[in-house]
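Narrative of accomplishments. A recurring question from our advisory board has been how the design workflow behaves on a single, concrete structure rather than in aggregate. To address it, we present the structure tokens for one chain from the evaluation set, followed by the sequence designed for it. No filtering or post-editing was applied between the two.
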């Protein structure tokens, strides 16, 4: 009999492994933050004894959701400037507000708010890009949340960096500070081709190759962005990145609502990953990412919410449902994006895009114990015939009961364990009143 830290018993274990295995009446053994075994409940008791055991009758246990694209501190701008097109929203509202308010303190409070929201929504990992990323990384470590944190690169000065050299200098300091952290995964994060010029992009390419880091970039988000870039440079943004040698398996292209068939082939040839942000794209009327075509070309497509300033939430259950329904409607085909695929997009596909699929994204022996339990015994989720379909089409994030990251419990019976909800609400209200005034 082997003693382990935790054993979780559940009615369903949804693994998101390569075979999309769903186990019934199974248990998960966790020790030192790692999954030791997934066994039928009866067999588990013969081989393992847990110091802490959870009998979660009526629950499904699955990989923690991964939010493939966030601007975590922008939670403090939730609802700040709604119902506007992208460039009006950015240029006339968000960028001036950021210039006035963004600071290390702003980022710290906004990060805590976002991590609390994501944990309560079953998210265990996010892929972030924003200013003061070292503060976001520090908060993630304190909370016990797994985060990809981007070295933000943009041609314009900000409260974080005065010039392009300082962005790189601070980004490299971020990498140095957190490269040994088990929870923080540093990435390169040039904002977009229209805000980062050629020379910095070439520096990004060189750093990505030298340090073996993923590159996150907003790309071909709106038709106007593509047209303006074409007028200025004579090529589309994707062609520009291809010319610079940035189309590689390390590239995470975010949004991608404006794609030709030839560009889809180019993405497939170069192994680029895409992060689809359906609700943000719908709210900003940016366009539609051709997810079905991308998946048909075996392109890795993940899901993200974007920031809460343009979504206006970090709800990955909502993104799974919206992505599935949107694809079906656009293709006129109810099988275009099945529930199983939507769930993979919110878990293992995002982990693959971030380069951490050997660590997280599925429930498999040897991987980090990043998992959640969902209570499926409710008026809203019964009867239940297929737990995966139920999770994608019927479950709200309020049904998330428990959350673990690397074996540490961050949510227990809907209560945060590493954050004070009362203190956080008070801090956020102070910032709300400050910004509102």
């Amino acid at each position: 009999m082997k003693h382990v830290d935790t054993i979780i018993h559940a009615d369903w274990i949804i693994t998101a492994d390569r075979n999309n295995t769903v186990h019934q009446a199974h248990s998960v053994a966790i020790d030192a933050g790692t999954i030791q075994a997934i066994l039928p409940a009866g067999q588990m008791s013969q081989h393992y004894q847990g110091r802490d055991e959870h009998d979660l009758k009526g629950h499904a246990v699955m990989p923690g959701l991964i939010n493939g694209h966030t601007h975590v501190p922008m939670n403090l701008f939730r609802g700040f400037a709604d119902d506007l097109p992208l460039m009006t929203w950015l240029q006339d509202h968000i960028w001036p507000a950021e210039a006035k308010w963004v600071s290390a303190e702003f980022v710290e409070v906004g990060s805590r708010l976002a991590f609390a929201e994501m944990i309560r929504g079953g998210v265990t990992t996010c892929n972030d890009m924003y200013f003061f990323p070292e503060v976001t990384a520090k908060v993630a470590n304190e909370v016990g949340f797994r985060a990809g944190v981007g070295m933000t690169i943009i041609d314009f000065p900000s409260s974080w960096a005065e010039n392009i050299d300082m962005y790189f200098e601070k980004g490299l300091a971020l990498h140095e500070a957190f490269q040994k952290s088990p929870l923080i995964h540093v990435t390169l994060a040039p904002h977009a081709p229209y805000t980062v010029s050629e020379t910095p992009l070439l520096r990004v390419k060189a750093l990505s190759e030298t340090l073996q880091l993923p590159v996150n970039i907003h790309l071909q988000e709106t038709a106007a962005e593509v047209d303006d870039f074409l007028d200025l440079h004579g090529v589309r943004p994707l062609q520009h990145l291809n010319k610079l040698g940035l189309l590689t398996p390390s590239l995470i292209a975010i949004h991608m609502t404006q794609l030709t068939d030839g560009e889809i082939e180019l993405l497939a040839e170069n192994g680029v990953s895409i992060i689809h942000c359906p609700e943000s794209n719908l709210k900003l009327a940016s366009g539609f990412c051709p997810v079905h075509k991308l998946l048909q070309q075996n392109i890795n497509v993940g899901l993200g919410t974007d920031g809460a300033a343009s979504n206006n939430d970090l709800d990955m259950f909502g993104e799974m449902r919206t992505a599935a329904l949107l694809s079906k409607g656009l293709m006129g085909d109810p099988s275009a994006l099945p529930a199983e695929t939507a769930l993979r997009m919110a878990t293992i596909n995002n982990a693959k895009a971030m380069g951490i699929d050997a660590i997280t994204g599925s429930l498999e022996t040897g991987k980090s114990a990043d998992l959640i339990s969902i209570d499926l015994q409710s008026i809203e989720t019964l009867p239940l015939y297929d737990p995966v379909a139920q999770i994608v089409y019927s479950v709200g994030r309020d049904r998330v009961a428990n959350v673990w990251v690397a074996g540490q419990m961050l949510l227990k019976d809907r209560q945060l364990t590493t954050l004070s909800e009362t203190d956080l609400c008070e801090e956020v209200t102070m910032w709300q009143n400050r910004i509102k005034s």
